[in-house]
Amino acid sequence: MQAEIITIGDELLIGQTVDTNSAWIGSELAKQGIKVQQITSITDQREHILSTLKQAESRSQLILITGGLGPTKDDITKATLCEYFNTTLSLNPEVLSEIEKYFYERNIDISQMNRDQALLPVDAKVIRNWQGTASGMWFEKEGRVFVSMPGVPYEMKAMMEESVLPMVRHYFNFIPRAFKTIMTVDLPESVLAEMIEDWEKKLRSEGFGLAYLPSPGIVKLRVTGQSENQKDATENVYKKVKEVQPIIERYIFGYDGISIQEVIGELLLERNATVSTAESCTSGYLASQITLVPGSSRYYLGSVIAYSYESKTAELNVDPDLLIKYGAVSEKVIIEMAKGIREKFGTDYGVATSGIAGPGGGTPDKPVGTVWIAISSESGVVSKRHYFGNDRKLNIQRTAIAAFSMLRKVIIDREDWL
Q: 117: how many CB neighbours lie within 10 A of its CB?
């Protein structure tokens, strides 16, 4: 089965808004075994919408549309869909009641334009929007399904999860599928593929699917399988995941989309332990990533952004002679930084980063992308030098992932994996 995504809005085409909807929808459809063969962004123009719908209908069985459902006059998607499906708009009393309730609860005066959002196509199934006021619409035509949803991401996501995906599964009568995602770190995609080559060949020969999903410092392996019932599909996938675990055990930090900082949080809570960070090249990025996790205040005590020589000495007690002799990006300095932050906050673990993020500042012996990371604990300090690339933003992201990976291994007492 093939699907297509159409996003409507001039703001997408001029770069004012980034199209995150398509990426999310594509990911969710892939989990259902639905192949997205095209994503199209178009303007809020009647002729463009009509021609795009016609083209999509010739290629795909499922067409998902986002955007153009607001209350203002420039949002013409609803009227254009009525034209395409040869139907008319009619007031939906239930939707109108929900819209009026929405505004009343927020103590906002409701306008006629807001009430007009309850005007919906007669021949469409209404998909309720419990996060906003723009309803979704489900159209069926000669075995094909068109679904129009609001462009606001959190409204669209709720609608997809609560209504659209269950309706799609029922309409197209899918074969049960199961997924398991293995989260790996510290390995490039190509090296990982070589390590699991034999397992992958056997996996595919038995009808399972495998997708490599790389991001800075992390590669996700998504294993897919199907069977006559959901229970068997799930069990079969789990068996295949267990087969590969011994091969790449040291690189696996979790499953099914969990972040490495979430894993660290769980480990620290299990041990009633705490952590602090001393950041130079990452300049607060580690701290921001750690505190994205709800409840991180129970184990994360604080950070020092020691960007200059002076701050490293004043805040972390780094010996100024070491800075002069070896430079900030050196093993001796990073060790002192890790010790200093742990002592300053009295934590069980201290994490330190120092490097040359770029694009300038490199030297022959310390090129751009050179980064030192150290982890201090009661048992001592471990440190490691990394060489990343020339992209400043990516270097910061990769440094954070590498630091979290090192910290995880120290916490679980697997320093032999460093």
A: 24
pLDDT at 33 over 80: no
Mean pLDDT of the chain: 95
CB 4 within 8 A of CB 41: no
> In which domain, by residue range, is 167 found?
2-172
Q: In what order do the strands lie in the sheet with 300-305?
A: 300-305, 275-279, 349-355, 370-377, 380-387
304's tokens: 């020092």
Claim to verify: residue 84 and residue 107 sit in the same structural domain: yes
Same domain (yes/no): 131, 220: no
Q: How far is CA 407 from CA 135, 300, 380, in A?
A: 47, 13, 13
Q: What is the pLDDT of residue 229?
A: 85
Lowest mean pLDDT among 27-31, 330-334, 360-364: 27-31
Query: Is residue 222 pLDDT above 80, yes or no?
Result: yes
Contact assessment for residue 349 and residue 410, using Cβ atoms and an 8 Å cutoff: yes
Global confidence as pTM: 0.76
Of 226, 255, 284, the position where a domain reaches its end is 255
Evaluate whether 144 touches 2 at the Cβ level (below 8 Å).
no
CB under 8 Å to 380, separation ≥6 — which residues? none
Q: Which two tokens stand for residue 359?
A: 């694009």
